[in-house]
Specification:
Blueprint: E1 2-5, E2 21-25, E3 28-32, H1 38-44, E4 54-56, H2 62-65, H3 68-78, E5 84-88, H4 92-104, E6 117-121, E7 126-130, E8 133-139, E9 149-153, E10 157-159, H5 167-175, E11 180-184, H6 197-200, H7 205-208, E12 211-214, E13 231-232, E14 238-240
Parallel strand pairs: 3-4, 4-5, 5-6, 10-11, 11-12, 12-13
Antiparallel strand pairs: 1-2, 1-14, 2-3, 7-8, 8-9, 9-10
């Protein structure tokens, strides 16, 4: 499995684009989140929406779903296709009613399923997206009152999307066989709705060695060499994940 971060920045990123990823195995391309900057960063990486086989969504913030309107319209009007959308069953209605309905609705098209091949996933269940890509949705704490999910791929690759620091969960994942963690990181404290660098630095070094930092601020370079055993994920770089 390969992962390429089309963007590695936070919600306000201007330099590194929103934190969205492309996972590929055997030619199958899965987009992980589709934020406001995704259409441009996808283009800059040399891809079009038609190159994607499916998209997986973690939660409702615009840096994770703000590009879905263009995705739907491009696939409908330019390519004549309905893209596959994997999403927690609890987020299907909010995605349409609270985020996409205003922009996408055009009679008689007035439902999420008119624009996407919607494939709901239940929290905690292992779901096969591709013969070599299985994902489990883990509900993680991000914003009070808003559901947000992190992803466990193939039982050994954890992708946090957006979450507050939860050292207990990270230790449990490592004990259960996770070998690679891509974790969002707010570089300055306090973390508030994201794990801060200071919080992540409290992890034992053997866990830090498995952690790659993403969703960071545009001044990331100032923190190079100050992340313990952890490393920064670089935009557009391709990483091989052993699963």
């Amino acid at each position: 499995m390969q992962i390429q971060m089309l963007g590695t920045g936070g919600a306000f990123a201007k330099k590194y684009s929103n934190n969205n990823a492309l996972i590929e195995v055997d030619g199958f391309k899965l987009l992980v989140d589709c934020g406001i900057t995704l259409p441009r960063s996808l283009h800059d990486a040399g891809y079009s929406f038609n190159d994607l086989d499916a998209v997986l969504i973690s939660h409702m913030h615009a840096d994770h779903v703000g590009g879905l309107e263009e995705y739907a319209f491009q696939m409908m009007f330019r390519y004549g296709k309905k893209p596959v959308l994997y999403i927690a069953d609890t987020l299907v209605e909010p995605l349409w009613e609270q985020t996409l309905r205003g922009g996408l609705t055009q009679e008689p098209l007035n439902a999420l399923s008119d624009f996407f091949d919607v494939r709901p996933i239940k929290e905690g269940e292992s779901y096969e997206i591709h013969p070599e890509i299985r994902v489990k949705l883990i509900r993680t704490d991000h914003i009070a009152g808003k559901l947000s999910y992190s992803f466990l791929f193939n039982e050994n690759f954890f992708y946090s999307a957006d979450m507050k620091f939860d050292g207990g969960l990270l230790k449990e994942l490592i004990e259960d066989g996770v070998s690679t963690i891509f974790h969002d990181c707010q570089l300055v404290s306090p973390g508030v709705v994201h794990a801060s660098l200071d919080e992540l630095l409290t992890l034992p070094e053997d866990i830090q060695e498995k952690v790659w930092l993403m969703h960071y601020n545009d001044n990331m370079e100032e923190f190079v060499g100050h992340t313990g055993k952890m490393r920064f994920v670089e935009q557009f770089a391709v990483y091989e994940i052993k699963t």
